[in-house]
Amino acid sequence: MEIIANYGNILLVLAVAFGLFMAWGVGANDVANAMGTSVGSGAITIKQAIIIAVIFEFAGAVLAGGEVTATIRKGILDASIFTNDPHLLVYGMLASLLAAGFWLMIASSLGWPVSTTHSIVGAIVGFGAVGVGIDAVAWGKVGTIAMSWIVSPILAGSIAFVLFKSLQKLIIDTENPFDNAKRYVPFYMFLVGFVISLVTIFKGLKHVGLHFEIGISYMLATGFGVLVAVIGTFFVRRIHLDVDENIDFHFTSMERVFGVLMLITAAAMAFAHGSNDVANAIGPLAAIYGVIDSGGLIGSKSSLPVGILLVGGVGIVFGLVTYGHKVIATIGTGITQLTPSRGFAATLAAAATVVIASGTGLPVSTTQVLVGAVLGVGLARGMAALNTRVINKIFLSWLITLPAGALMSILFFFTLKGVFGA
């Protein structure tokens, strides 16, 4: 308690700085989940992607990022262990933010799409197990997260595979792909609106205290799906067949129809991502703020000033603008060559997987979900369509994310203990 009283303000300033750094890492690495497929497919340019993401990621983080955040991120640690030593929790969360931020910076510089969720989870597990004690970590929860590494990419890839196969059968492999695209795309637009709104309801609005019953949630999602389909149909009808543009690539006009879809999914996924993944940066920051604000008391929840949400939103946007292009390139062009129709199948599959995971309580990484979906689209076109060298690098980066975060967190934890005292 004495350490909190003496160094509280200094620790809080460090927490904001480290939280901003972690949020920057989320923007640099994780925003590719929302933008990678849209840029890679040619539906929007990198500049347009950044503008869309700046607006919708920031809006999602600040408007739906959460007034109240769980003190111990995802229940990974046993809060009762820190009752007599609250300063250890503060050191640990500071170390976790710094470690996860550094790892995301390294991964982003190499163009690796790693999980920001697993980065912070690995960091918290590291300081908890080594710095405090093995019993401080809820290993059952960690095991569930590890299981999601396998389940979520497979699920997303399977959905993307089926979706793209349906596109091939109904539109791409027909005599008149352009006409069939205009006929069937409104139904896919409904699916986009339906699934994306469910993502926002389940993963975003709960943070601001808006809880809907399952039935009402699906009714709202259905209504939004119809609205998206109606608006999308208006724009699709204005697209006309241009014979000249199809000389080099038979499907150019058809892909322009799907380009409308990709614009919608890019904006919606950016909002949903901002509202959900800002918690990776502000979760530990909320824990630190709660302990210092209460004078050293460990509570299960702490109120979050809007300023902390702004730290998350600003950090995410800054990370995307300065460093996000590298991971966007990996997601968008490195794994398999994307077109708007392929990118749409991958994005919708990823969103659907997040909805399913939310309903079942399975913690998933949006990065791994989207990479799995892009792989599924590639497989639907045949193994030759996949860049196995890039895929192997991505899988390797996933394997080392948790231990890398843990090791750096342990190092920073003991450094902070040495500086401020145990």
List keywords for this structure.
single chain, 422 residues, mainly alpha, 2 strands, 76% helix, elongated
DSSP helix fraction: over 70%
Helix and strand composition category: mainly alpha
Span of the ends, CA to CA:
11 Å
Strand order in space, largest sheet? 1-2
The biggest sheet, with number of strands, parallel, antiparallel or mixed sense and barrel status, is:
2 strands, antiparallel
Can you tell me the residue ranges where pLDDT is under 50 for at least 5 consecutive residues?
67-73
What would the average pLDDT be, to the nearest integer?
79
Q: Provide the β-strand percentage band.
A: under 5%
SSE ordering: HHHEHHHHHHHEHHHHH
- The total of helices stands at 15
Nearest-angstrom radius of gyration?
22 Å
Shape: elongated
Number of strands: 2
